[in-house]
Amino acid sequence: MEQTCIVFIVYILAITATLTLGQSSENIWDQVRTRENPCRDTTCGEKQDVCECYLTVEHRLTMMIEEEGTLVVPKGGQLYEYDKPGSPIIKSEQIPYILTADANNSRLVIAVNRRFPGPQITAYEDQTLIIHVRNLMDTDSTTVHWHGMHQQGSTYADGVAMVSQCPIGHGQEFTYKLKANPHGTNFYHAHIGDQRTMGLYGALVVYPKQDFPSATKQEHVVTLQDWNHDDDASTLYQRMLYGIYDQARKTPYKTTSSRDGAMYSRYRFHSGLVNDKGRYYTSSNVHNQAPLTEFDVAPNRNYTFRVISGRASDNNCRCF
Ligand SMILES: *[C@@H]1O[C@H](CO)[C@@H](O)[C@H](O)[C@H]1NC(C)=O
Ligand SMILES: *[C@@H]1O[C@H](CO)[C@@H](O)[C@H](O)[C@H]1NC(C)=O
To answer: What CDD domains would the database entry show (predicted)?
Structure first.
């Protein structure tokens, strides 16, 4: 009898241990998915060798509180639930997760940890980046490229679909391991189809081992993106090949190309976004009053603004 009981207790303990271990890796995905920092708390610090982060990639809609199935609309720089025009949404836990783009219709984007652009990864030079990517998109596979990282000895972690890896399918996880080198303002972005322009990108800031004398501790990251209302990636590609027309005016849009003749005009630029936010202008001075990104600054202080271009259309600061 006593022996049975002990065996039983051991059995219960074993089950509990299994559940706890199983849960802890589940938990880290979920913990970081609803906060700003995508990385494990005990990593990525100045004195640490490793920076370990978790990125969950998923489709989301702009201008929606998805949990409640509620459309939001812009007015006077704020957002309102469509059926409650009297009181703006101010709940701080909701605001970062309502994606707006330029507030024109509810559009599909690819979010990382529910955000668009994805959360910032901040590491130190020569740290080992261990970045787990989980694909929860139902209909697309993905890869992530670590733009600017030299990847010496780690080409397999470069994230170029079909070249350095097979794409990560729905429900799959993939772990990238590389050195954070060189330091500077970089970004991670999808390297398959047009997923970057749909939102799969985010800042990757690598601090130098030694601060520059001019470095300010106060800094802001600014990501720029052009935004288009009309098309999915395949339509845009076909239009790049065959032309884009304004049907109402019966005229083609002017195409643009790089100096060596490569076509670039996949996008009509409807609105510019700064960190996911912009306004749709119907004429040069009439816009839809969508909220904009604000940066907190105090007078007589110096700030570093790190500017990242996630743009797709022809421009001088595009980088691949
Ligand atoms: C959304 O943008 C389109 C142009 O793409 C425009 O015709 C339409 O009026 C805009 N909708 C609103 C509600 O501003
Ligand atoms: C800001 O930077 C300028 C130029 O480098 C410098 O002269 C000034 O002292 C700095 N101000 C503060 C508050 O650090």
So the answer is: CuRO_1_tcLCC2_insect_like (cd13858)
Phi (first) and psi of residue 282, to 5 degrees: -85, -25
Question: Closest ligand 2 atom, CA of 302?
Answer: 1
The CATH number for 44's domain is: 2.60.40.420
* 18 in contact with ligand 2, CB cutoff 6 A: no
SS3 (DSSP) at 168:
strand
The model's pTM: 0.85
For residue 12, report the distance from its CA to the centre of ligand 1, in Å.
60
pLDDT of 204 over the 50 cut? yes
Does 302 sit in the ligand 2 pocket, CB within 6 Å?
A: yes
State pLDDT tens for residues 82-103: 999 999 987 766 777 899 999 9
Is 23 inside a domain boundary? no
Tell which residue, 137, 101, 138, has the closest CA to residue 116. 101
- Is 3 a member of any domain? no
Ligand 1 mutation pick, 100, 104, 244, max ligand atoms within 8 A of CB:
104
Contact 44, 123 (CB under 8 A): yes
Is position 22 within any domain?
Answer: no
Count the helix, strand and coil residues of the chain and give each as a percent rounded to the nearest 5: 15, 35, 50
Question: Which ligand gives the minimal distance to the CA of 283?
Answer: 1
How many domains, the chain?
Answer: 1
Residue 274 inside a domain? The answer is: yes
